Amino acid sequence: MNNIKINYYLSPLLKKNNFIHSFFTRESSKIDIKSHGEKLMRNKHNNCLIKQIHSNKIAFTSTLTSQKIVNADGLICDNKNQNLWIYSADCMPILLADKYQRRIAAIHCGRRGLEKNIISNVIKSFEIMGSSRKDILVSIGPSISGNNYLLDKKTFDKFFSKNNRSLIKLINYVNLIKNQNCESIPLDIKKYAYLQLIMENIDPDNIDISNKCTYDLPKEFHSWRRSKNDNRQWSVICS
Which of 40-44, 115-119, 123-127, 229-233 is least confident? Predict the structure, then answer.
């Protein structure tokens, strides 16, 4: 399995600022993370993993051990020589980095993560650790598009009520009125992640978003909505 060719995408923003990272494609579900992490860094780094539960919980790498699995959906590096791994299918893999202090984080975020404001939690944690919001870079990797993520009205209403910030409320309300007679309402999670980042005073120039849809590209990505199985692809950022 270690000889499998694994394709990946890079964030132009993170690459420009010299952060080693990858948004891997479907072949990555079969890789050995330990050996692949060593290839990425060309030296020994700790591979940091969490058990993802669609929450707003964050784990710091200094608290992780190989004997204990932590339930969380965000990873923040507070140690040197760390690889932060996130697995996803239709949800967003989001990689964050402080371009000057070289602090990094990785988030698994879908609709429920947006409802629970995990993005805000990670940014606030960065700030507490000494980062300035103007220095935070954010890259959102391949995930499902709004055209393929359709919600029933009850679920959409729940998302609307959970997102109580004015700009997000307004846009959700417009969508709700527009689709009030539809059985299924599209939800563009990348758009709402972007809006949450803007509301957190992240510079738009410090955000990049992949246009790849996991649902539309079965040869490249796993998609739960398309296949209804547990296969995922990995994303990583290295300190």
Answer: 40-44
Confidence of residue 59 (pLDDT cuts 50, 70, 90): very high
The packing angle between helices 166-178 and 153-162, to 10°, is 160
What secondary structure letter does DSSP report for 69? P
- Report CA-CA distances (Å) from 107 to 35, 44, 231: 22, 23, 18
pTM for the whole structure: 0.91
What is the rounded (10 degree) CA torsion for 193, 195, 197, 203?
Answer: 130
Q: Looking at residue 180, what DSSP letter applies?
A: T
Show the tokens assigned to 181. 């007679």
Q: Where are the alpha helices (DSSP H) in 53-210?
A: 111-115, 118-128, 153-162, 166-178, 189-199
Q: How far apart are CA 207 and CA 223, in angstroms?
A: 24
- Partners of residue 60 on adjacent β-strands: 76
213 close to 20: Cβ distance less than 8 angstroms: no
Decide if 110 contacts 74 (C-beta within 8 A).
no
What 3-state DSSP class applies to 48? Answer: strand
Cα 66–136–51 angle (5° rounding)? Answer: 25
Tokens, residue 72: 């969380």
133: tokens are 């919001």
Rounded Cα–Cα distance for residues 98 and 195 (Å)? 20
Cα(16)–Cα(102) distance, integer angstroms: 13
